[in-house]
Amino acid sequence: MPTRTIFLSRLIGLYCILAVPSLLLHRQATVDAIAGLLHNSSMILVLGVITLAAGLAMILAHNIWRGGALVVVVTLVGWLVLIKALLFLFLPLGAEAECILRGLRHPQLFYVCMIPSLVLGIYLTYGGFSSKSRSRRDAS
Q: Could you tell me the pTM of the whole model?
């Protein structure tokens, strides 16, 4: 397993495992904060630029489509982050806000949106910490 895959799967996985429960625990505050952010064009621009940098970094460091499910999932996450950034940067302000907020305002949909991120986090964390890098295998 490439060392980059292990690092990114641990990073993304732990991020999801730590962030999602907090968002779930504070559902109304999360919805209010996201609504405030999405109605502020300056914040959307900043969010889009930061997300663009993160997505490009992930893709440039890890655009690997072979080598197992964990490798492909990490690559897909990078591409999804890039697509999300491009949507923030190029969609009209009202379009992205309405699309996201429509799902978050309904309690059941809020959880439906968050649970896949938590499951992804568990999968990536488990895969990242249970995998061995190529360099460790070669050394033994």
A: 0.85
